[in-house]
Amino acid sequence: MAGSDFPTQARIVIIGGGIVGTSIAYHLAGLGERDVVLVEQDRLSSGTTWHAAGLVGQLRQQAGLTRMIRYSTELYARLEAETGQATGWKRCGSLTVARTPERMTVLARNIALARGQGVEIEPLSPEEAGRLWAPMRRDDLLGAVWLPGDGKANPSDVTAALARGARAGGARLFERTRLRAIETVSGRAAAVVTDRGRIACETVVIAAGQWSRQVGALCGVTVPLHSAEHMYVVTEAIPGVTPDLPVMRDPDGYIYFKEEVGGLVMGGFEPQAKPWGMDGIPEDFAFQLLPDDWEQFEILMENAIRRVPALERAPVKLFLNGPESFTPDNNCLLGPAPDCAGVYVAAGFNSAGIALGGGAGRALAEWIVAGEPTDDLWAVDIRRFGRFHANPAFLHDRVKEVLGLHYAMPWPNRELESARFLRRSPLHDRLAAKGAVFGAKMGWERPNLFDARLAREGLSPGFGRGAWSEAVAAEQRALREGVGLVDMTSLGKLLVQGRDALAVLQAACAADLALPVGQTRYSPILNARGGIASEVTVARLAADAFLIVTGSGQTVRDLHLLRGRIPAEAHAVITDVTSAFAVLALAGPRAPDLLARVSRAPVADLALEAMREIDVGPATLQAVRRAYAGTDGYELLVPTEFAAGVYDTLQAAGAPFGLRDVGLYAVEAARIALGHPAWGRDTGPDLTPAEAGLGHAVALSKPAFVGREALCDAAPGRRLVTLLADLPDDLMAWGGELILAEGRPVGTVTSAALAEPYGDLVAIGRLSEPATPALLAGRIAIEVAGRRVPARLGLAPFGAADRPGRAA
Questions:
Q1: 757: cis peptide before it, omega within 30°?
Q2: How far apart (Å, rounded) are the C-alpha atoms in residues 612 and 624?
C-alpha cells in the first residue's frame, strides 16, 4: 500500500540500497540532480554489502579503476565530517608478500604499474615485511611490497553515510520496497512498479547486487553475473595483532588478513569456487548467510596457518559464508544497457564493491548526467559483453574460475579455460587440424598461432619468452616474405542503411565518409571531449548503404553508440551482420599473385582501401586492398556459407607463393612494429586523435560531427610513442612497463611484442607529459620486471608508414 510520501514519478530511480546504489544517489545529488529516488527491497546494505570484508586496495591493472578506488579512499576519509556518520575508514596500508620467484616478478611489475599511476608503493625484504606484520611467518618469503595508502572500511557504516549524504542532497530513499516490474515504452524505460506503487521515470539504474540479473530480465536487459559462495573467518584475539596492523595479502596462498578487535579476519579466493543461486536469488535473502563449508575453505585455512602459525590455536568465533556476484571477466559492470534505452547498470563487483563503491558511484552518476563516461571506463563497460554472456550454464561454469583469478598468477596472454568454444568461425575445424592454438574474445575462438605440439600440450605460462615465440616469428616471416592467411571472422560488422545513412555517419564519425561507392576509410568516433570513443573502418556499398567493421570486442558497444547518434527523424537503420560474413585476410608481398591465381577478376589494379566484388573459385565475395600487416594484402569479406570453400581454394593454390596460416599473435606483432595504435590498448576516450598521431584521419573541414568543437579548442599534451629495445633473453615486456627518461618515469608501455625485422622488442607507449625536444633527446629506458633496459623512442613508427591500425 502506497504511503502518502511515496512518489509517483521521478527523473531517476535507483534499484538497490547497497554501497553502490547509495553512492550513485549521493553523487547524483552532488551533481545537482534533485529528483532521485532509491528503492531497496529490505534494509540498506542488507544484500552483499553488510558481510563484505571492507578491504580497499588501490592498485589495479587498468588506470581508470585505480583512479576510481583512489577516489573511494578520499571519499571515505571525509564522509564522517560531512555527514556526521562514521565510516570505519582506516588508512592502515597493505602488504603483499611473495613466496615464489614468479610472484616476485608480479610484484616488480606492480611497482612499475603503481609508479606509472601515481600510487605510493615500496618494495620490502622479508625482514622488513616482518617488522610491519609481526604475527606472520616469513622464512619462506622472498619479498613483499607496501602500499601505505590502502586501508579498510566498515561497509554498512559507509553505506549509511552515503545514504545520509544523498538525503541531504535531496534524494529520497525507500527501504522495504519490493520491485515488481519495470515498464518500457518503445524500447525505453518508462516506470518502476513496486509493492508500494508505480514510479514513472526517465532513467532506471540497476544496482541490485546479486539480484541484478533477475532485475534486468524484467526489462530485457542483459546483466552477466552469477553468485558464488565467498567465505572468511573471524578469530578471537591473537598476540601481536594490534589495531594498526596493515591489511596483508598472500596471493600464493590465495588468502588475505585484516585486524578486527584484536583478532584476525582471514579469507581468500580459492582456485575453484562454489557457484550459488542457480535457480535465482530469493528476494527475502537479507542479512543472511549460507551454511559453513569447512571442506571448501580447507585450502585457505591450510595456507593461512602456514602464514600465521598462531591461527592453529586461535579460536574461531565466526565462520562467515556470504554469496557475492562475479562477472565473466572479473571486472564490474557499469554503464548504459544496450538492450533498453534509459537503463543503466552498476553491478557485479567481484568482491571489490567496497573498494570501488565510491568511485563507481561517482563514475556512473557523471555518465548519466553527461550522457557519456567522463573517464576511460572500457574495462568495466557493460557493453563489452553480449546477450549470450548471461546464459546461466555459461555463467555457472565461468564463475568457478573467475573468483580464483583475484589471487591467481596473472600470466601474460592468459586464456580462461571455462565455458569455451561458444562461437566458432566456419573455418574452426580446418584451423584446428592445422595446429591452431586458440584464444577467445567476445566468445569467439580465434587462432593465436599455429603449432601442432603446442596445440596438443598447451602454452606453458611464464613472464618471459616461451615456445610460442618461434612459431610467431615464422608466421611474421610469412607476412613479410610470402603470404599469410588470417581468419579474422570475429571482427564486428555493422550494416548502415537508409536515405540518411551518409548524414548520420558524417555526424557520428570524425573522418569524411562522403566516399565513392566501393571505397573504404578508417575513422575515429569521438566523444564530446574530442577523445577517441572508438575506431572503425567504413566501406560505402551503395548510395544509401555502408558497412562498418570494428574490433571483435567492440561490436555491442559500437552498435549501441551509433544507434544513439541517429536522430529520431532520420531514415537510417543499423544492423549487426557479424555472423553473416567471414573475414579472411591475405597479407604479404605474394598476396596479389595468389589472389590473381584463384580469381578471374582484376585484383592487381585494385587501389589501396578500395573494395571490389570478385570471384574466388566458384564463390563471389568482396575484396578490399589493405596493408594492415605492413605489406600488400587484401581483406576478403566472404558470406559465411562460402568461407570454407574459399579457404580450401586458397590453400590448394597457395604452396608456390609460400602461403602459411597465421595467427593473431603475429598480426599483433606486425601492428605494433608499424606503430599502428589499437583502440582499447593504446588509444581510448581520454586521448585525442592528435595525441594518438591520428590527426590525419579527422576531417575538420566537415561542418559538424561529435567532438569537433572540442578538438578545435584542444592543445595536444600527451603523446603516443614507439619504442625499440634489445631485451635480455630471459625478459619480455607485455604492457604496463614504465618508460623512463633520465631515470624519471614519463610514461607507460601500452602494447609490446617481439617483431622481426626490427630487432627485438617493439612497443607503443603513452607519455604522461609533453614530448619536448629535451625528453626525446634524453636517455630512454623501459623498466621490465624491475630491470631497466635501454630503448629508442620516436614519435613516428620505425621504418614504416604511419597508418592507423585496428585491434582484432
A1: yes
A2: 7
